[in-house]
Amino acid sequence: MLRFIARRLAASLPVLVGISILSFAALELSPGDPALIALRALLNVDSPPDESVARLREEMGLNAPLHARYLRWVARTLTGDLGFSYQTRRPAAVEIMSVLPATALLAVATLVLILLLVIPCGIASAIRKHSLFDRTTLLGSLLAVAIPDFFLGVLFILAFSLGLGWFPVAGYGSVRHLVLPALTLAAGNAAVSVRVVRAAMLEVLGTEYVTTARAKGIRETVVVAKHAFRNALIPILTYVSTQFGYLFGGAVVVESLFRWPGLGRLLVDSVSARDVMVVQGCVLVTAGAYVIINLVVDALYGLIDPRIRLGETHAP
Amino acid sequence: MRRDRRAFRASPGLVIGGIGLLVLAFAGVTASFLAPHDPAEQRLEQQLRPPSLEHPLGTDKFGRCLLSRLIHGIRASVGLAAMTTVLCVGIGFALGAPAAFSRPLDNVLMRATDCLFAFPGIVLALVVIGILGPGIGSLALAMVIPGWPKYARLIRAVALSLKEEAFVESARAIGADEWTILVRHILPGVLPTVLSVATIGVGGKIAMIAGLGFLGLGVQPPTPEWGSMMQSGLQLLRSAPHLAVFTGMMIVLTVLFFTLAGEGLQDLLSPPRGRR
């Protein structure tokens, strides 16, 4: 099992290098002289003296060739130094760490809601294919896909906050603040995931070993839960984990709408203020979370399906 | 003929979506004639009116006609989404199809797309806008950079299976060069699959353009654009909910038309095996 994980870790190395190049490029391509911007913020003046700017440029290594700047940036990033925010003058890493708990909370709550919604509905749809329930589920998923997350959020606010007064409009701090943003994110994701669950179950239910299990007289609930669902889990996990990965930093619009102090909102605020180092840090953490989550899920594949661990089949 | 009719009956979504898209395209092109009012005309004595005969969907906080602004907004939203989708497909073909024929190129393409897939699309879009600043050009680039990898992967996969087909082998046997094979044989073979995926994809881009407009980082006011109209509607949700609700419904209907048309095309162009 350890060897399997090590192999997977090595396989994701090129992606990590690519991500670092992209993040570094974002920083390099941003307009403005970082030394000048830094001095403006530090000294609180509009036009710091030219010789100070030149000295800081040298100190920051901005005059070095591109590859040297990249390596220096990688070394600094690996020690957790992401530069600092021009807006708050605090280290970018501190800014990002301070929003991670809120994002993690929202992501996990959303994931739980997605699974609670999607697994029962997807299985029921697959078992009773073409039934009224199946058709309602598919129609609902079609509609939910077409509704952009911010409009769904607005509708929820209209109905549950302004209308019924059950939940606060926006903010952070209690479980009641969590419900609407998590529900908004979950509904949009569930719309697609429910089709994935349904398709995966339909495929497994059509296989010969399911027919064999039925022929042996095993109870239908056992056939569905044990023989079918466990084998359908792999494609379901693949899809849901990708979506879960995207919730770290990708829930930009919903976090902004509900003023949820997470990574997505920090990213939007930093982009609006062109706070380059925070933008770059957010991007790095977003992609890093995606890679880590996929690694964890890869390890889970090995647990669910020994064939993958032993290298007989490749994980999707 | 009868087979066509049966296909249409099997997919009412294609008919609904197709008609919806035609109406949208017509309204977008003739917006200046069709819209009852000038979308920029401010009449402050008429601000925040609910729907009436003169303003079928009401007015916004500057007294501008919401319906006229929604109709004019088709140009920014649908126009930009369709244009950038075409660009994404073009890049996807230029990189994906040759990758099916060249191992090294394939490795580079797969790793590069792996990296891009690690970022949620909207995050890449925000980075582009963060670097270039808001504007139409940066918005277009912000759509294309996260958009093309999906098409490159799709076209590569279809091209890989087409490569093994007899008609490609025979073309090569009679001496066709790689370029001829790509343009004359792979391109037409890839198109049906890409067409349906891209139609659905336009819907996704419309939602993303609106999302960026909603964040204040997309098409800038005073150009009428659905996302930024949604944002100003949100601020008046208590006193004038019609602004946010009608704007949202316009986006939903448009995305729905594209999804229905795309899924309908999918059914039409690749019938399930048993029926063929």
The tally of beta strands of chain A, per DSSP, is 0
Distance between the termini of chain B: 15 Å
Overall 3D shape of chain B = elongated
Number of helices of chain A: 15
What oligomeric state do the depicted chains represent? heterodimer
Order of helices and strands of chain A: HHHHHHHHHHHHHHH
Q: Describe the global form of chain A.
A: flat
| CATH topological fold name of chain B | MetI-like fold
Unreliable residue stretches of chain B: none
Radius of gyration of chain A: 24 Å
Quick one: biggest sheet of chain B? none
Report the helical percentage of chain B.
over 70%
Beta-strand share of residues of chain B: under 5%
**CATH architecture descriptor name of chain B:** Orthogonal Bundle
The CATH class of chain B is identified as: Mainly Alpha
Strand content of chain A: under 5%
**Which stretches of chain A are low in confidence, meaning pLDDT under 50 for 5 or more residues running?**
none
Q: What's the structural domain tally of chain B? A: 1
**Helix-and-strand structural type of chain A:** mainly alpha
| Main sheet specs of chain A | none
What does this structure look like?
- The complex is a heterodimer of chains A (316) and B (276).
- Chain A starts with a helix and ends in a 7-residue tail after the last helix.
- Chain A contains 15 helices and no strands.
- In chain A, helix 6 runs antiparallel to helix 7, helix 6 runs antiparallel to helix 11 and helix 8 packs across helix 9.
- Chain A is mainly alpha-helical and 316 residues long.
- Chain A is flat.
- Helix content of chain B is 74%, strand content 0%.
- Chain B is elongated.
- Chain B is mainly α.
- Chain B is built from 11 helices and no strands.
- The chains are: A mainly alpha (316), B mainly alpha (276).
- The interface between A and B is large, with 45 and 39 residues.
